[in-house]
Amino acid sequence: MTADALNAPTPAFLAALRDRLGPQGLREGDAAAPYLREPRDTSQGQAALVVRPGSVEEVSHIVRACAEARVALVPYSGGTGLVGGQVRPEGPPCVLISVERLNRVRALHPDDDAMICEAGVILADAQAAAASVDRLFPLSIASEGTARIGGVLGTNAGGVNVLRYGMTRDLCLGLEAVLPDGSVFNGLKRLRKDNTGYDLRHLLIGAEGSLGVITAAALRLHPRPAEISAAFVAVPSPAAALELLHLLRGRVGEQVSAFELMQGSGIRFCLDEIPGARCPLDPVPEWSALVEVGGGAGSGAAEALEAALEEAFEKGLALDGALAQSEQQRADFWRLRETIPEANRKIGSIASHDISAPLSEVASFVTAASERLLREAPDIRINAFGHLGDGNLHYNLFPAKGRKREDYANIKPVLTRIVHDLIDAHGGSISAEHGIGRFKTADLVHYGDPAKLAAMRAIKDALDPAGIMNPGAVLG
Amino acid sequence: MTADALNAPTPAFLAALRDRLGPQGLREGDAAAPYLREPRDTSQGQAALVVRPGSVEEVSHIVRACAEARVALVPYSGGTGLVGGQVRPEGPPCVLISVERLNRVRALHPDDDAMICEAGVILADAQAAAASVDRLFPLSIASEGTARIGGVLGTNAGGVNVLRYGMTRDLCLGLEAVLPDGSVFNGLKRLRKDNTGYDLRHLLIGAEGSLGVITAAALRLHPRPAEISAAFVAVPSPAAALELLHLLRGRVGEQVSAFELMQGSGIRFCLDEIPGARCPLDPVPEWSALVEVGGGAGSGAAEALEAALEEAFEKGLALDGALAQSEQQRADFWRLRETIPEANRKIGSIASHDISAPLSEVASFVTAASERLLREAPDIRINAFGHLGDGNLHYNLFPAKGRKREDYANIKPVLTRIVHDLIDAHGGSISAEHGIGRFKTADLVHYGDPAKLAAMRAIKDALDPAGIMNPGAVLG
Known about the structure:
Two copies of one chain form a homodimer. Chain A has 14 helices and 18 strands. Chain A has helices at residues 11-21, 56-69, 123-131, 149-154, 162-165, 200-204, 238-252, 264-273, 301-314, 327-347, 359-376, 412-425, 441-447, 450-463; strands at residues 26-27, 49-51, 73-76, 95-98, 105-109, 114-118, 135-136, 172-178, 184-187, 213-220, 222-223, 227-234, 256-263, 287-295, 320-323, 354-356, 381-385, 392-398. In chain A, strand 8 (172-178) and strand 9 form a beta hairpin. Chain A starts with 10 loop residues before the first helix and ends in a 13-residue tail after the last helix. By secondary structure, chain A is an alpha+beta fold. A five-stranded antiparallel β-sheet of chain A has the order 5-6-10-8-9. A four-stranded mixed β-sheet of chain A has the order 1-2-4-3. In chain A, strands 13-14-12-15 form a four-stranded antiparallel β-sheet, with helices on both faces. Among the domains of chain A are: 105-223, Uridine Diphospho-n-acetylenolpyruvylglucosamine Reductase, domain 3 (2-Layer Sandwich); 227-346, Alpha-Beta Plaits; 354-425, Alpha-Beta Plaits (2-Layer Sandwich). At the A-B interface, strand 9, helix 6, helix 7 and helix 14 of A face strand 9, helix 6, helix 7 and helix 14 of B. Chains A, B: GO terms for molecular function: catalytic activity; FAD binding. Chains A, B: This is FAD/FMN-containing dehydrogenase.
């Protein structure tokens, strides 16, 4: 079934929905505009109606109505996705369904290391709810003040703590979701072990709204580390950063919570573009790592980090470094790291890539990629940064100083192809944590496994025969 | 599509398979008998031919041939599954496909904490391969000397280290599998982050061979704990055992590797039935816990365990205890725990249940279940044991001394219904780690979520329209 078979909603269809949902459940005209904006302004969404259901029953009603009328339905959570999954610029007008009113933390179960959150709960609020019962919900991403639980599940978000705690899917014990026929999947059990049939949870997580609307989740909590320690370390190269990571893990094992790589260009972007930004090290290192460890009270995590760094200096794996002496200083380290995307936006990238490779391949990828790219476009500026501990880099390309991204419009597809071909050749992924959305559907077809793509298509057609759920996303 | 539409293999079909696979690739007559045996002898399998492909290409050929001829295909790995998933007693004769000759460890990647194993690698050999590069493959189950990687993935096996390291699915980074149309899914990337479309890996894991034949996996490795310490602790009740677990996790966090519960009846079964078995504590406690912690060199895991136990004694959570003073003693503790299933088999259970509940519900379930069951059948003996840290109990019922399991044949379904109704009411699962197989398909229909069951059926029909893959398993 293709999107061609979809219908524009009729006036009668829209009137019936308006009637059912009431003014609180609708956004139209100017009030609908924010829901149609792509975060990097690269495309413009459209919708016949924005609906804001206030209950799972209302979600089910909306889905069923769209399925019967063959009207496209686009799920919208926090709106922060970077691959256009929540923005439908083309095709018959859709209904956009925002989960923002499903915003209750339904239950906290600290003894089970679990909590039940609805899809519209903002990620930062979910973190706070966990902290209120002395637990950690470890998912942490730059957009956590805006992103909502439904979207982080739909896209299987990653972030800075994946090294220790896994992706969003690893933090989800169970789901409640409305399937494309309007039926409600009640899968909110908070069990660590439950081998009862196909894992529908893992199929819906990361399906980017193309197989249903997630309405709530049983989320997995962890003990809150009582001792947290962070260091900002200048390293001679990405290869040395990886050796430092192995050294650290050998000493403190699973207590390494985050291991972020930053390139000098990215830090300089922050210093140039963001008022008040400052680098803990002077001069700005060409490569640096932001390392965080956390353990229970008396775990000695801080001492272990310090000892590991001393060893790293002796071995030449660290050139300079600052150990956070206070919570404030630790927050400052992180603010610099989290400011890089904002600085990138201000400068305006030619092309950005969210890639991953096996750890053992990252350093050789970085070397090969910059060599190939600079041969093709000698004046571009490369900013590679991100979650090195997971092999995940945001590999972004910028115009030379004084030039504009538009100057490189012709060469942009060539540069992206170079990056993606190389990461593929290194056994990596062309979408580590952002997903496919609408921007990477052609890449998925090009780099994806044909048997997997055929299976995905068969599953999509089986669960959503009318093709209403987020058409154009993931499968194109 | 139902199994009714399946065909018995014709002589020509079998001759062509024999021809293609050669003598090494076949088992017939007496040589086929071991593949048709159910481990607890509760049913008898049948097959027109047992095939043993030596390559992924041969697997693909066999699957394609069966799909074209609509001949049932039953995957067989180590043969240790306890729910009949590998044993097809009825329906048109099938082809049974053993993965035992796909038994290479294809690659070891210690720097990536990964290894590539084929489906026929025995679990204990996979553990040894990881150890050979100073890494841990933490999956550990009683049958690890016989179970093979394909089967532990197909059933999403659990075991004693789930508390710390997760289920089999949490230890799998990628899969290679032959799908029901014979196409090969090449998904062996060893990435921690890869958001490129639906997660086919998690769909195949736990599908019990009903969606394809897993041929290889990229498995996730962990650092090997340098310091391991274990204790055998008498506790006043399951509720106290759970409090001890919380106390321990508060002190040593993620370093708690295992937390097993044993009931006095189970230990006495071992002492009665297994020559040489002995209990570290005298008298045999009514409830005891086997606790293991592990950390890096200098992590102080052993001291932390000892300190936590002292606190537990003061709080009345521990009544007696033995701390392993040597590797030998630690192995002895585990041998007693791992001998319980063998002793159970010798006595012969009336009914056995593989159940899980949220931790906060386990103690009240145990109390309510024994009360209800003993009202129904006052002379039965209950042996509840297992992976308390995950909320997973093997809850098995035995005849009174001097009586036989057959004496309880009439009441068996009533007892099982009591156990399953109660665990369901406590938010638990009727199959925590063994899966559905053929023995629990009716339970899945009874206790499963209807929307999930409908989605499972739709997925099965979409990926396996001829219904050849392990018919009768999971979906009945």
